[in-house]
Amino acid sequence: MTVQYPTIADCVGNTPLVRLQRLPGETTNTLLVKLEGNNPAGSVKDRPALSMITRAELRGDIQPGDTLIEATSGNTGIALAMAAAIKGYRMILIMPDNSTAERKAAMTAYGAELILVTKEQGMEGARDLADQMQREGKGKVLDQFANGDNPEAHYRGTGPEIWRQTGGEITHFVSSMGTTGTIMGVSRYLKEQKPEVQIVGLQPMEGSAIPGIRRWPQEYLPKIYDSTRVDRVVDMHQSEAEDVMRRLAREEGIFCGVSSGGAVAAMLRLSRELENAVMVAIICDRGDRYLSSGIFDAD
Known about the structure:
CATH topology of the largest domain: Rossmann fold
Strand order of the largest sheet: 1-2-10-7-8-9
């Protein structure tokens, strides 16, 4: 018998769905989280990164040896750096210079080249520079913000996994919104199976900075975003997201980033309004890529 051994790309997806035990308190609701930090490069972004490159290859848009360019705040960049390493592409990543040292180091470890813009320029400036470099013929922008292969990864993977793992009992899905690929793809799949499932998106309150998610100005709103696929949008304060993030580590043993803390905080809010609900929130990544920020310090 010939054994078929998997490649690292085969290990993207099929992440665990686990029940929260202590944070929910006394409740008739079931609160579940999907551990996307278990993907090979450590975040939910492994799914769209691999999807965008693989499906572009199948269309003949790119081929190994080409240069790819992407603006990123961190997780997508790490995932794309991994996918480019697997498939043999030169990867140029453009990101704000206030991203954590761990994120930058992870990208370069996979062989990607980094270009930093200022904190003030932010993701909008990074996206503008990526487009400029493409116009100058320096590479091809995958554009996670407008690329349908981003939500398609979640329509084909994350959504079906959640449906199967909950036995179709899910009533509410909660996700932070950055590129919005996760919430768009999962919403499409779950609504096809069960239209009454409630889709809840999370964005930072005005003045709050939550890594990986944004309150986009209208002109930079991701083109893949369709507001009709989201039933409710929750505004989250940075301090509440950080507090729940720390509590997840200390009370549940789930070590994750701030946007994941925000998603669970939103789920806890919802739980106080509901009975007998089955809720799923996305844990986007692992907490180890935020350690240098001091956000987990004891004080």
